[in-house]
Amino acid sequence: MKSIVVLSGKGGVGKSSISASLAVVFSKDNKVVCADCDVDASNLSLLFSLSTDKYIEWKPLSTNQIAVVNEDKCIKCGKCIDICYFHALKMKGDFPRVKEFGCEGCGACELICPVDAITLHDIDNANIGYAKTNYGFSIASAQLSPGSSGSGKVVSEVRKKAKEISQNTEYLIIDSAAGIGCPVIASVAGNDYAIIVTEPTPSGFSDMKKALEVVNHFRIKNGIIINKFDLNEEYTKKIESFAKDNGIEIIQNIPFDKTFVKAMTNMIPIIDFDKKYESIFEDIKAKVIMGINK
Amino acid sequence: MTKIIAITGGKGGTGKSTVATALAYELSKENKVLLVDADVDCPNDHLLLNIERKQLNIVSQRIPKFDLDKCSKCGKCGTVCISKAIISLKEKYPIFIPEQCNGCGSCKIVCPEDAISWENKEIGKIYTGKKDNLNLLSGELKSNQPISEFIVNDLNDEIEKQKEKYDYIIIDTAAGTHCPVIAAFENADQIIAVTEPTPLGGHDLEVILGVLKKIHKTGTIIVNRSDIGDINKIKQVSLKFNMKIVFEIPYSKEIVDAYSKGNPITIPNIISVVNK
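YS: structure for the whole thing
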């Protein structure tokens, strides 16, 4: 199985739209599965008209632990508060209280407590599951509970789930979150190819370079798609010459087209909504396969 | 009294930075304003305002330093490390992967030989800048460091220090809903979610408003590119959470042009969202 991750650094440049159509084009000749690794705001399945009520499976997931103080045993020494690097414990009333959104579940408080008054408990911090698209392939996704931490570990679980739900898969398509932090690192590590989507704006260019640093750190083969390339031809040239200087392939330039929004509003992948995109995505697919085998 | 306004949205690319920079710049014409770019993974406000930033601080995080002369190869440090930053093999010295470490300190607590002390690793920087009357504070995470919220926490400390000097502080948060976004809400008096009228915008708006509800804060909604797509979904979310749509920004070629060229963006009457 070959895995392809789509990322961008900057949000809203077209990662999910491109991931969805890429999965459709690959599924024509190959066995495909998708993983929506934007677990903060998981919405790749919406592009296939799949809301969670249409999922085959959707259940709670626990990847995190949280410290719980047993007030009967606590001697109010305050050592747990001092040791917590995340400031997740505070004295409230007579006893230390754990801030739910601050606790990383590291267990330092449990280790330091002289009277064993603190234990770590599993908490459900996400929902995870999968659905089947109209195109025959499945999509694994998860949604982090509001305010929960541990997005990186939830991303790893989604990748695992994608492998579980599909046998003899030839291509795994991963849609990453925006940014370059914990969930993105978890989405990017260990893939065969990375597509970096950008747009010709100062922000798009700056964030693309940051996304490249993450991809290069993990030594993943990669290429760039410039979305809305005609918005600012001068910046498109800047991105192209940067790519040339660094030996990175520009896989495709996609023009600015309001049809993308229409396709999204109708919850249909752009490749199926407007047939002119079929040849564009066939071309992207061919270049990605070449890139993987280089 | 300083008023702190956080701009968020859930989905990426909905126009958070556009709104934050336009609002801050407009307010700064008659008030003392600090714009804080808390999208530390990918800070862009300085690019939108064409500001050359200057370094203010280095943000660092503690990591363990192993004294191998004292180490007895017991392996306890590896077993307590939930970040999998320490790998202990039987009868071998621990292998440490600094990128993975979150500094929790469990390893130091369990080490029976007192072989672990602290050193720092750089995880990011804080910058300052200025555009006309507007001051900028901008945090930036170093590549391949996982914990964005440490940078946001340092920005919060800096806000606390400088607060008195300003009438308004505008905080531009990251996309998403995880830790660094929530950390940015900590001191906010008012929270505004910027969204777009697409199913994806609506979905992510629901998630971020869910976060606000959970941390007992309320917010208002700005719909960007309000005339492309279907605004009904956003209206439903607004009703469900009882958080009002206070402003609509129609699609505008001028905004797209200004954004793509790195010119400051003007949104007429954007100041009206303050206090609504």
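YS: worth flagging: Residues 276-293 of chain A form the longest helix (18 residues).
IM: good catch. Also Chain A has a mean pLDDT of 95.
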